[in-house]
Specification:
binds magnesium ion, Rossmann fold, alpha/beta, 702 residues, six-stranded parallel sheet, binds adenosine-5'-diphosphate, OB fold (Dihydrolipoamide Acetyltransferase, E2P)
């Protein structure tokens, strides 16, 4: 392809008009402005990006004889008979004909004035949905008006139906979009991509104009599916803007400095010798990449992906160790207290024999302990801090933070990742960042939402792991599972019983688990059953986890607090209640708690019947694969990226037009264009990003 002429960014004047607040349009006051804000529309340009969800065809008057039930159509016909009927619900029936056929207009609510207006002989133009009624075709509550000399001809273009909010009428939206389009026609947007893809693609202005006002005969099925070239053109540009902003941020960070660690320090060798296992080839590969980055005086920004149980923790420990060996500190942030406590135990066991002090910092520690931990970090006495989001609270100061590790990143918001990084910033000096996720990120997401990070993958699992067998069954079979648990634990093995959050309240959450614990204790007299949930005190959780780890408990009843990180290889059976309510990635995580030892493991997913088709499809995915990367792709297809990452994950949910699942095939083009523009038209990056990404978004700052 021939690269197009490199255009200069638009001058300030031109940007200014579309960048005006929507309130500058005629007829928009503060109240309407607020309603627009609810739709994410602040400026005139935002309004142009608010694309219709669907269209109505009012371009042609349809003969009554041609109508089919289900169609929404424009008709013109003469009233033949109007009467109030009392059969069933009182309604005003109005029979109209046009010489080719007849249809009945039915009104359940009507005024006297309306009734009087619908006299025999009056010509009406109506728009509404055709339905099959008792006595032939009907339209219920159509829009209508009497036809007279100043009735305008049918609409020249399809009528857009916009996503809207209470108090903002479609008609109002259409008029205002019309004003915005007139401004666009006056001052078209600069097409930064002109000449950079095949000539039959529409320009940005053509695409916007078309989508607000598709001509008669436009392919509505394609539009509805979001696959029209004009929609694709806009989605492409939006995805490109997001990627550019992240690549640009990454480029900017190359100017920051970091402390280069010595990955070949002799303590690294001693650490590896003392480990009870050998690193897998996947772990060695990932560590090679990470170690090399850490050796550079430029901050690392790396995503470490690997399936549940692939052994990412030990790599984080290696990174922390090399920070400590170079006189820097490392902070490891986990999403739950339980996981933080567990990491603290592993890190202490691994690093303290090498003379490296590890402290724990979580919200539920007693104040005195928290203070002590903070003092050790401020003085530099402790080189490694493991904790929850408590790590980035104001009062925590590091002496020389050189590395930030975020475990299970999908559970954190972008802001949290950002504030921990800021703790280590001094002038243009920034800490290295390692972001770990056990919910593998579909490639499409990695290419957009994570485009600022380099990526390493821990391929494969430690040796001897057997795939977990997964069964899906209705809740009614719970009783038989109790027998199965008795047999399972009778052989010296352990089991989890998970009661996920049912209501949006911690209280209900823990009480469901509490009840199950009582039931199982009663039904399994020979076994000891423990209970763990988020509302227990840290010390209590720790006691219970330790008891389960040491096999003093046979069965652990838990809420989803055990979703991440918990590691008890002797537990090889898991039951998950209400599995239909959990996301695929979350279920895969939970299932990852078993299958960690040498025994064959089982996971039983219980659901409350009846199961929706959608839920059945999701559970089937889990039954059929143990591969987290496959699960993640499916999860994204079925739920969309916003859902998948959780609402706390800002950024990707801000996509206005593009849909990562639907538009995944655009991504190679997005990648190519972003590389091209960064190289030969860097001046476009800023205005393109500004066009699509709201000011103040944290998206690009991570
Ligand atoms: P995840 O990637 O899910 O965080 P973990 O780091 O928790 O996985 O590791 C899972 C389990 O595998 C732990 O018990 C860990 O000690 C063990 N493990 C890690 N690496 C290896 C290895 N190379 N060989 C054997 N076991 C390993
Ligand atoms: Mg982990």
């Amino acid at each position: 392809m021939v690269p197009g002429p490199v255009r200069r960014p638009p001058d300030k004047e031109r940007v200014a008009k579309l960048a005006l607040p929507v309130a500058s349009l005629h007829g928009v006051g503060p109240k309407l402005g607020e309603r627009f804000a609810r739709l994410g529309v602040d400026t005139v340009a935002d309004l142009l990006c608010l694309l219709p969800q669907r269209y109505e065809d009012r371009t042609e008057v349809r003969p009554l004889g041609s109508l089919r039930p289900g169609e929404k159509v424009l008709i013109e016909a003469k009233v033949e008979l109007a009467e109030v009927a009392f059969r069933g619900r009182r309604s005003l029936l109005c029979r109209v004909t046009d010489g080719t056929g007849a249809i009945t207009l039915r009104f359940f609510h009507f005024s006297r004035g309306q009734q009087e207006g619908l006299q025999r002989g009056v010509r009406l133009r109506c728009f509404g949905e055709v339905r099959a009624g008792r006595t032939g075709l009907e339209m219920i509550h159509p829009e209508y008006r009497a036809v007279d000399t100043d009735t305008p001809p049918p609409e020249p273009t399809l009528t857009p139906v916009y996503p809207t909010t209470e108090g903002l009428q479609q008609q109002r939206l259409r008029t205002l979009a019309g004003q915005a389009l007139a401004m666009l026609a006056d001052e078209p947007l600069v097409d930064y991509l002109a000449g950079r893809f095949p000539a039959d693609w529409p320009s940005i202005n053509e695409a916007i104009e078309f989508l607000h006002r598709p001509p008669r005969g436009a392919d509505t099925a394609m539009l509805l599916a979001g696959r029209h070239p004009c929609q694709r053109r806009i989605a492409l540009e939006e995805l490109l803007a997001h990627r550019l902003s992240l690549r640009n941020a990454a480029a900017g960070r190359r100017r920051e400095r970091a402390c280069g660690f010595d990955p070949a320090d002799e303590r690294v060798a001693r650490f590896l010798e003392r480990l009870p296992f050998e690193l897998t080839p996947g772990q060695r590969g990932a560590w090679r990449e990470i170690g090399a980055d850490l050796g550079e005086p430029v901050p690392m920004h790396r995503l470490l992906q690997g399936d549940v149980g692939s052994g990412k923790t030990v790599i984080a420990a290696l990174a922390a160790l090399s920070a400590a060996a170079s006189g820097c500190q490392a902070a490891i942030m986990a999403p739950t207290e339980l996981l933080a406590e567990q990491h603290q135990a592993s890190f202490s066991a691994w690093l303290e024999p090498l003379g490296i002090e590890v402290v724990l910092l979580t919200g539920s520690l007693p104040a005195a302990e928290r203070r002590a931990a903070r003092d050790r970090l401020a003085s530099g006495g402790a080189a490694v801090a493991v904790g929850t989001h408590a790590l980035f609270q104001e009062a925590v100061n590091f002496r020389r933070l050189g590395l930030v590790v975020v475990d299970e990143q999908h559970r954190f918001g972008v802001h949290q990742r950002l504030s921990l990084k800021r703790k280590g910033e001094r002038g243009d000096f920034a800490p290295h960042q390692l972001v770990m996720t056990a919910t593998p990120i579909p490639r499409t997401l990695a290419m957009t939402a994570y485009a600022d990070l380099d990526c390493s993958v821990v391929a494969g699992l430690p040796p001897g792991r057997k795939p977990v067998r997964t069964a899906v069954m209705p809740e009614a079979r719970r009783g038989r599972l109790v027998e199965r648990i008795a047999a399972h634990c009778g052989e010296g093995r352990q089991a989890y019983w998970v009661c996920p959050l049912i209501e949006e309240s911690d209280h209900v959450d823990s009480s469901a688990a509490l009840e199950r614990e009582r039931e199982l204790s009663a039904a399994l007299p020979g076994l000891s059953v423990g209970l763990i949930h988020g509302r227990l005190k840290a010390a209590e959780k720790e006691r219970t986890m330790r008891a389960f780890k040491q096999a003093r408990l046979d069965v652990l009843v838990a809420t989803t607090v055990i979703e991440v990180g918990v590691d008890v290889p002797n537990a090889s059976l898991m039951v998950v209640e209400n599995a239909e309510r959990l996301g695929l990635a979350q279920l895969h995580q939970l299932r990852g708690r078993v299958g960690r030892g040498r025994d064959e493991s089982d996971c039983v997913l219980l659901y409350k019947a009846p199961l929706s088709d959608h839920a059945r499809e999701r559970l089937t995915v889990l039954r059929e694969t143990n591969d987290g990367f496959v699960v993640a792709e499916k999860d994204m297809q079925l739920r969309g990226p916003g859902e998948m990452l959780g609402t706390r994950q800002t950024g990707i949910v801000e996509l206005r037009v593009a849909d990562l699942a639907r538009d995944a095939d655009l991504l190679p083009t997005v990648v190519r264009l972003s590389d091209e523009l960064m190289a030969d038209a860097p001046g476009c990056v800023e205005p393109l990003t500004r066009r699509w990404i709201r000011a103040g978004s944290e998206y690009a700052k991570v």
